[in-house]
Please model this.
Amino acid sequence: MLANILPGFRHTRTPLIAGSLWFLIGWIALGEDALPSSDGGLVSRRLHALTDFAGVHLVLAALGVAAILLGSLVPSVRLRAIADRLKINSGHRRDRLLNSAFGLSGELQARDGGFDHWLYRVTAAVPETIDWQVFDRSECPPSMQTWARDVREATDENSSLAVPVKIRRKVVRATDLADASAHSWLLFYLAPESVREELYSELPMRLQIERDALYNDWDRVQSEGSLRAAIIVPTLILTGLLATTSLWWLMAAAVPAWMLRQGVRARVEADQILHDAVRYGAITSSTVEFVRSLYRTRRSDDPTDDSTDEDSPRRRVDRGEALAGH
Model:
């Protein structure tokens, strides 16, 4: 029973705390002018009378509901947009320093690189002779179908890819990809971006249906990131208001900065829980299943293909085993 209550509590906690902070900002900025008064206008007089009639406890409960509504309406910082732009598995010094600032080094970096390497190996097993027609199959994810169609139309119209191709958030203009095969596009762009697209809806839904305990872990981490994203802006504004009374309050600006760091880290960690669930076979991914169907079809059509051996590396990848230690 507690496991069923906790997700709802986590989702209510975030707008309640964020809305309460906005109310605190309004109180500090306006003071007693924000309170209903018996000498004010019609609405102010009615609210004042209602306060006397209902009592303090009911008024506080109403304020809590109002805080939840306010916290739900005010947009929060888009942590995923920040996390998507971080090159977690990069070896460049600038990227490593940026990742360290957000706490993304060490285990999180290794897990991100492990999934990228695993997905590359799965996709690399697809025969290089595939054509664009394979993306018209019903089992191909809708987003991948759309991107493949855009790539095909752009390369047909202009061999230099002067027409930009947008794959999720990436805009591809590189001339060296104009003559690239469907296999290359699948390997380097379509499959990785399609899996990232599934992080928004499909993978969390599959995790909730098939792996309830693992879903609770994901929801906990994701809710922590959402909470921090929701309170970054009001905390920053509150710090600015307090700094007008004393410059010592500027030291409190470290709080929203730390919230941003921890929020981005929680967002990345939540995504990697989903990645690990797909990698180790806890849940399935439409993208990975589609990619596997492409080289499964080849094995069924070619009886001489030795990749049907259960101990072959390709079969181990197909079963979702780890890259090392198995």
The beta strands are 165-167, 170-172. Residues 1-74 form one domain.
